[in-house]
Design brief:
Layout (H helix, E strand, L loop, with lengths): L1 H6 L8 E8 L10 E7 L1 H17 L8 H12 L2 E6 L2 E2 L3 E2 L11 H21 L6 E5 L2 E3 L1 E4 L2 E4 L5 H13 L4 E3 L2 E3 L10 H11 L1 H7 L1
Parallel strand pairs: 1-3
Antiparallel strand pairs: 1-2, 3-4, 3-5, 6-7, 8-9, 10-11
Length: 214
C-alpha cells in the first residue's frame, strides 16, 4: 500500500478476481439459474475503501480532484482483470473493460459523477437550443431527461433521423419486449404479459410458499 501511495501503480494481481456462480435455487439446471459474483482481492478493497471515503466527504460539492488522486482512481479501475471459477477450475484471466463492478465501494460514487456530467450536458444543450424537452409538465419548466438509480430517460423533439431509426427498428423488432424482465409496451391490465414473471417468482420461492400466499 505504501508503494501504491508513492508510485500510483498497482500490481496486476492485486486487482484480479474470480467470477464464481451462485445457484439461485436448490436445483439449478440451466445457466440463468446461477447468479455470477465477483470475488475481489482484499488488498484492492482496502484501496477502494480509502478512496471512496475521500469521495464521500466532497461528493455533495462541485469540485475537482488532484492529478495524483485521479491517477490512483484510474489505476484501480483500468487494470481490473478476472477469471471465471467453474467447479473449482479457473479459466485464463481476461481484462474487465467495464471496470465498475457491483459491491465495489467506488462504483456508486463514480457513477454519480458521470451521471451528473450527463445532467449538465442535457441542460446546456437545451439552453443552446440543440434539443427541446417536453413543455409545461412542470409550470414554467421543460423536461429533457429523468434519472433514477441507473436508469436515464431522454425527452426531445424527434427529427427525421430519429423517425427513420424508429421505422427501421420496427422492421426487425416488436412490442412488447422485455427490459430487466418486465414487458414494455404490453397492456399491464392483462394477465398474460406477467405470466413469465410469475413463473420465475414461483421457481425462486417455491410452489409451497406460493400456495400459502394465495
Amino acid at each position: 500500500m505504501a508503494e501504491f501511495y508513492k508510485t500510483g501503480k498497482l500490481e496486476r494481481n492485486i486487482n484480479s478476481s474470480f467470477i464464481a456462480r451462485i445457484p439461485k435455487n436448490e436445483n439449478p439446471n440451466d445457466i440463468p439459474k446461477f447468479r455470477p459474483i465477483c470475488l475481489v482481492s482484499s488488498l484492492y478493497k482496502i484501496v477502494a475503501k480509502v478512496l471512496s471515503r475521500r469521495i464521500r466527504e466532497v461528493i455533495g460539492a462541485v469540485m475537482g480532484f488532484g492529478k495524483r488522486w485521479t491517477g490512483w482512481m484510474l489505476e484501480g479501475v483500468s487494470i481490473a482483470r478476472a477469471a471465471v471459477l467453474i467447479n473449482g477450475t479457473v479459466t485464463n484471466e481476461f481484462r474487465v473493460y467495464r471496470g465498475l463492478r457491483q459491491r465495489d465501494p467506488l462504483s456508486p460514487f463514480l457513477f454519480i459523477l458521470v451521471t451528473k456530467v450527463l445532467h449538465l450536458m442535457m441542460d446546456k444543450a437545451e439552453e443552446m437550443g440543440i434539443i427541446e424537452g417536453i413543455k409545461d409538465v412542470i409550470p414554467g419548466q421543460s423536461v429533457t431527461h429523468l434519472q433514477f438509480a441507473d436508469d436515464t430517460i431522454l425527452f426531445y423533439r424527434a427529427d427525421e433521423d430519429v423517425r427513420s431509426l424508429c421505422t427501421e427498428w420496427l422492421l426487425i423488432g416488436e412490442l412488447p419486449f422485455n427490459y430487466l424482465g418486465i414487458p414494455l409496451g404490453a397492456d399491464p391490465r392483462k394477465i398474460s404479459p406477467w405470466n413469465g414473471i410469475v413463473e420465475r417468482v414461483e421457481e425462486t420461492i417455491g410452489l409451497e410458499v406460493v400456495g400459502k400466499c394465495d
